[in-house]
User: Fold these one by one.
Assistant:
Number 1:
Amino acid sequence: MKRRDIIRRAGRSLRQAKARTLLTSLAIAVGAFTLTLSIAAGEGSRQYADKLVGSNVNPRALFIVKDNALFDGGPGQSGLREYDPDVATNQGGVALKQLTQADIDKLTARDDIEDVQPIYQLTIDYLTIEGSDKKFVSEVARYDSSIRNESAAGDLPPLGTDLDTQDVVMPESFAEALVKAGVATSVQDVLGKKVTLTVAKPASQPTDEQLQQALASGSAAALQRLTRGETKEVTFTVSAITKQSSTALMAGTAMQLSSEQAKSIADYTTQGTSQYQKYTSATALAKEGKEPEAVKQALSDAGYPAQTAKDLQNLLFTIVNILQGIVAGFGVLALFASVFGIINTQYISVLERTQQIGLMKALGMRSRDVAKLFRYEAAWIGFLGGAIGAGLAWAIGTLLNPWVTEQLSLGEGNAILVFQPLPIAALILALVVIAVVAGFFPARKAAKLDPIEALRTE
Amino acid sequence: MIEVKSLAKTYGKKQNVFTALDDVSFTIPDGASVAIVGKSGSGKSTLMHAMSGLDRPQTGEVIIDGEDILQLKAKEVDRFRATKMSFIFQSFFVQANETCYDNVSLPLEIAGVPKKERRAKVQKALEAVELADKIKSKARNLSGGQKQRLAIARAIVNEPTILFADEPTGNLDSSTGEIIEDLLFDYNKKNGTTLIVVTHDPDLAKKCDMQLFIKDGKIALATEHHEKRPTVKKIPVGGRRVQA
């Protein structure tokens, strides 16, 4: 019997039992629906993550450290070990190897990277805003010129250009907080205001001579001054307010200033301590024309573990993959249940059509072809279920997409469910295969049927 | 020519053994009409199944056109049935949900006849049984006689050399049964197809060229009887002479 005729006959048998066919395929449709949504959500999330990374991180950007434990998530070295002045011991006894100024110089001297910038640990005592004597605290960070920022007010320097040394940029949320605190009348009003940062130098160990002098003066104030350490004030002008972009990865919760100022503040606040000119990490750009991945390898070989923008992307993808895997797991479970549905339906179908099978075999149909007939019926059920499930998922997903985008405030033009024909076609194909596998035993039963038994009347 | 040589078939084991066919031998010339007559349980159906290769007797030969079909592989027996044999059953076994066209087209599909050639053959077969106007009707809408005519169309569509009819009129009233009998014998005469009718109806058996009476798995009597030539002639059966 020709394959096409078998497929046609299989389709016709199913049409003759429409309700049963539909119900059986609906079981598969549930699995197909879930899996289609999980594929679409995975694809959508990946595209979104791609967009996030693409608009936040320069693809040439490299994140360089001295201690690989930072990437591995490992606790670094612990236990009893020899003292190393370059190792910072954090709370909990976790030690991290740090980049020293010499390392930074070495990195700057390399010919495959440029714009090497250490990540400064910036701490301030407090800050004040012009026109008010209220004191505020906030995080302070170096302005990252390699990422795209959107301005809510004021002008930001073009991509790749640093802020002016007297300028500071703050996120919109800060400006709003200032408005709430009554320091400014509106977000626009914050622009151009002077911001004064008060930074403190750690107290240095006073020498015996200084102590004696202070004691000799007999004043407690002199002694206090000695141990408190000095402070300094730096004043900036708010040159821009950054918008909380829907695709902004870093939530922008820091007051940002130029690299030069950041360095001077960091140096000031760590002077005389073991942290002076030590950095846990640095950023750099792979030079134009250099493959970031190759540069990363070269840096690692030189003792500076690094990560590229792609690694960051992969990190996001890992999270997406895990979430997608969970959803897909439910889909697979539903499919697993539907497999038994197919087996059951097909067994009943074989029983019901005993005479038909007997007749076909008496007419010279080969057992193989009888088995094929039932396998193709199962395949049709799988196809139908897959098509119904995927079609429904597609339709509902497309309808829901604008609402989901709004609910998650993903920003215009972003969709969390992205349907692509190819993976869905592959899914349906896989379902057909699963259905055929499920139909294997009923098909074998049909093939093994004895035509004489089957045709025995009454 | 169909030669059946010392065919034996038993069911069951040891004490429960049941002999369905016991050393059956006969010869059917090409184009003959043969009635296998016997009571229920006499072994007549088993004989038909063995002759069509549906059943495998323990011993014996069924030589059709010089080939022992009992020695053939399953695939070849299937091929044999698909191209050279066909069947008509007491309960018709037409597919009620399918159209007449699809019912008749089934043997052609099984035999692998290309789609282009099928249409004309189906049309011709349905015309032969006067059901051409029902080509698109569902088989369930046919009367009993029409269903059996449809079954005949299905049986003759592939122009078989041997046509087995198992109680073809058993489920029909006598006048409808006669129409079916006429169709079968007409086809047998016109096309030279060997017609093998399994029946317990002596009237139907009389219309055949040859009768094989089966009792307890043995051929009790073999006669050659022609309507035109109503003399009963003894013929040799299975190596021994049987009295008429």
Number 2:
Amino acid sequence: MSRIPAVAAALSLGVLLTACTENAAPADEGDARSITVESSADACDLSAVEAPAGKLTFSVKNTGTDVTEFYLLAPDGLRIVSEVENIGPGLTRDLTVVTPEGDYITACKPGMVGDGIRADFTATKSDEAVDVSAGDTELVDQALTNYAAYVGDQTDQLVAKTQEFVDAYKAGDDEAARAIYPVARTHWERIETVAESFGDLDPMMDAREADLAPGDTWTGWHRMEKDLWPARAEDYTPLGAKARAKFADDLMANTEELATRVPDLTYTVDQIANGSRGLLDEVATGKVTGEEEYWSRTDLYDFQANVDGAKVAFDGLKPIVEKNDAALADQITSRFEELQALLDETREGDGFVSYDELTQDQVRQLSDAVNALSEPLSKLAAAVV
Amino acid sequence: MSGVSRRGLLGGIGAAGAGAAAIGFGAGWAAQGSEPDDAGSAPTTFDLYGEHQSGIVTPVQDRLHFAAFDVLTDDRESLVALLQAWTVAAAEMMAGRPAGPDISSYNAPPDDTGEAIGLPSSRLTITFGFGRSLFDDRFGLADRLPEALVELPHFPGDNLDPARSDGDLCVQACADDPQVAVHAVRNLARIGFGTVGVRWSQLGFGKTSTTTRDEQTPRNLMGFKDGTMNLKSDEQSDLDEHVWVEPSDDRDAWLAGGSYLVARRINMTIEIWDRQTLQSQEGDIGRTKAEGAPLSGGTEHDDPDFELAGRDGPLIDPASHVALAHPTANNGVRLLRRGYNFVDGSTEIGRLDAGLFFLAYVTDPRSHYIPMQTQLASKDRLQEYLQHTGSALFAIPGGIAPGEHVGQALFA
């Protein structure tokens, strides 16, 4: 939570980023916007104490022996306009921030303690109109609140559908279990990047057989998937009722544990943006190639669910992106539509055809559409912070 | 014919520029090891014969052709004859000469396939090894199987293709010119027809490690410097400790002066990697992308400080590649890496079929590879973008004395 005000502040200053870059500054003025900072144990030396308002780059070199940080603060010395952390000794990190005309305070914080070594800094009037719009903080708060609500809702549905699945599976009703399996997993896949952030639960719930080391016990969704769809397995021995109950109860317990932890999560806009791209990465790695649901061939359900989750994340950020980079917002929007149109061709009944029914051409088209969307999506985080 | 160099031939057919070099070449090749080139003192040819095989501590060349072979016969004498023939041909090719003596009989195919005529030796080295499968009951070698020549375990995430894994024999050909490296494997395969067949082979470009200090650390296809911590050829005591085999019993006495070679074909999901933020890429590796400095600070060759804390824990993530691969996290073991980048075209969905062909020479894979890879496979952040698709382990016999053949001690 502590990072959110910083993000919001940085965001509010990023509004006219696109306009700035389109409006190329003269070379000398451009150089004036590149400021070097040397942070040592007892000094914070800036190459300039003023610069023309616009997109400023502070190139912060740590010449001391402790880890350092650099802050651009509002004149009250409290509000963080932007910051760069974790600069190891000898390393240089760039902080780029769209800076409206006005007074600021710079601070180097060697050792990451105290108020830091502070000095006044001024962004002077320039041709680059940089505006701070009101209301961006609300947009960010709205996006964060909505995304948290979405994750919470999907988690609740995951718990309910997983319960249905394990009940059918334990009762030996394989047909019902097979029907509910991809539906329940949809709720997992929609929030996969969040679920995976619980590094202890993820391998117990979602590991594939090849992910195991010798001696590991295989548990979770895919263990039961293999038991329900053993057609591709060699010499497979079906699980007995006792083993079924063990795996089912284990999955249910882990799902409930996940649900108890989710409400404690907090998000930032860049996390949501990177999570959106991360879900498309999941599609590219496991779903488009048919590796995720090796036994059941229900990869297209997961594919759709990942896309759903990525779309919700993007839609939440869209008002912010539209202000910062309207072209990027349009491109991502249309590429989501193009990918969805291809996915819709693979629908069958309430669900999707088996991965095996896809032609090579379809796989190729889906893969190309994932690439087409993922590239602009990878620029989303930079456009919202 | 043994005095004819390829460059001598070239001079004879009149190509400009190479003729003068050929004079020094013919005279110098048989001397110990190497011949200075026109520009300086760096060797341009290497000697097959010596205490250790060439192509291990030898300065890493730019290109690789690696081949694994299966032996097709059960006849021990045929196998020995092949090793003799390979040894002779390898010595000739490394010296920049044709693989076989007769290249001019008009009514027979030439002994050498010809594509390297006119090319310098390009620092060619040819290194031979024996896989575990050679030590079955076919050749009476079962009681010479070294204990360390194990079957590598399944590591989490492995997706190994049997058609790109294992093999009875291996040949590693490294040269600065890919045509010279390919020529070497092609001619050795040809000599082997009837006795061995190629099981799989791998081309590599862009070395990903160096074994000498004066070279810049090269980059892998993730765009990061690779092998900063690699063992260097002048670290004699470390080479003895980490690379060369210390024979311990009758089973591995024949491996004196030898080593073990771990070969892993590691595919990278390059397109996905390229979409990660610089912060995330550097966090995965634990080093900066441009300089290769550890995230704890300094420059490339400064020791990483795994304790140095930033805002949210150590500056170098304990799950980063450098933290998990570092000797301090692996009982002090070091590897001599000699890997190459590879691109085998594109997949059917248009992705690069590309990655790192990992080659590491170690004194014992049980202490120097398996524990490290077990840790990397389950914890390394990079694992998200990697998939091991081929795997092999070979025992690399010690150096060859003039008049002997490679692995002679094994068949004694």
